[in-house]
Amino acid sequence: MTSGNNTMTNDTLLKVEHLSMKFGGLMAINDFSFEAKRGEITALIGPNGAGKTTVFNCITGFYKPTMGMITMFQKNGRQHLLERLPDFEITKKAKVARTFQNIRLFSGLTVLENLLVAQHNALMKASGYTILGLLGLPAYKRAAEAAIEKAKYWLEKADLIDRADDPAGDLPYGAQRRLEIARAMCTGPELLCLDEPAAGLNPKESLALNTLLRSIRDEGTSLLLIEHDMSVVMEISDHVVVLEYGQKISDGTPDHVKNDPKVIAAYLGVEDEELDDAIHEVEAVSGGKN
Ligand SMILES: Nc1ncnc2c1ncn2[C@@H]1O[C@H](COP(=O)(O)OP(=O)(O)OP(=O)(O)O)[C@@H](O)[C@H]1O
């Protein structure tokens, strides 16, 4: 568990139980269960095609699972069964936000505008959904000011304040990734799900991402991430869950998982009898240290 995190507690935030997802004849996820704790960064890893994105899509309402239960436990004591909610309510009611493998920003809008659009729901609610409300209600004026403050806050955090008025599409790739995360944070999530946030980043951008993700966690939003970059996973995760062929093969601290023979075998693609050789190979590569 990463140290220096005052907000870390041990209560369950997300509980996935016996999740299965079938596409025609393919069992992409098969009786998969895990928990993500409040105040932690949980990473979901596994070889290509293991089912990671499918799990994300079930949690965030893009797919309705064939079987299983996904429960979100909010700070206020409310519980939501995510598999029963439409996707827009998963963000709004259950407070689960996500980003995608492919960046999905409004590239013609400015950086600031992207963050304001993300707060559209709160602004419309404050307007009372009327034109008069938009023009005159003090509640709307207050909400608009709060939206700008929140956007500014996340622009600072994501180190994007200097680019606030530039079109989002003009930002370098790593900055666009941070903007996507800032935009998701403007919806006020308790759980932020990130699908391969480090994909395509250079080492400097990767470091900036790690800093941003840690600060999000330390301020009280828990994270669930899919990531192929093991340096990111091992560096920032508190808890790692490993999938292979739609089933869980390991679950624990980064140290536990990276030394688990089943995980080593899954990543090296070896059969059981070749496992000893695989472990020796990994030890040789890491100089015998883990
Ligand atoms: N909409 C779909 N229709 C049919 N099959 C699908 C669909 N989505 C995913 N699959 C299949 O389910 C399996 C798991 O895919 P998924 O994308 O979840 O894996 P992944 O672990 O995220 O892979 P990667 O690391 O390559 O992104 C794969 O065999 C994939 O082809």
CATH superfamily of the largest domain: P-loop containing nucleotide triphosphate hydrolases
Termini Cα gap? 16 Å
Q: What ligands are attached or bound here?
A: adenosine-5'-triphosphate
Quick one: how many beta strands?
10
Oligomer status: single chain
How does this model look, in words?
Belongs to the ABC transporter superfamily. It holds the Pfam family ABC_tran. It is a single chain. By secondary structure, the chain is of the alpha/beta class. The protein has two domains: 1-95 and 189-258, 3-Layer(aba) Sandwich (Rossmann fold); 106-188, no CATH class. The chain has twelve helices and ten strands. It has helices spanning 52-59, 87-92, 111-117, 120-127, 131-136, 138-157, 173-185, 203-218, 230-236, 254-258, 261-268, 275-285; strands at 12-23, 26-37, 41-45, 67-73, 79-81, 96-99, 191-195, 222-226, 239-244, 247-252. The strands form two sheets. Strands 6-7-8-3-9-10 form a six-stranded mixed β-sheet, with helices on both faces. The chain has a four-stranded antiparallel β-sheet with strand order 2-1-4-5, with helices on one face. α6 packs antiparallel against α7. The longest helix has 20 residues, at 138-157. The chain is globular, with a radius of gyration of 20 Å. The two termini are 16 Å apart. Residues 1-9 have low confidence and may be disordered. Bound molecules: adenosine-5'-triphosphate (ATP). The site of adenosine-5'-triphosphate has 11 residues, from β2 and α1.
Brief overview:
With 290 residues, the chain is of the alpha/beta class. The chain has twelve helices and ten strands. Helix content is 40%, strand content 22%.
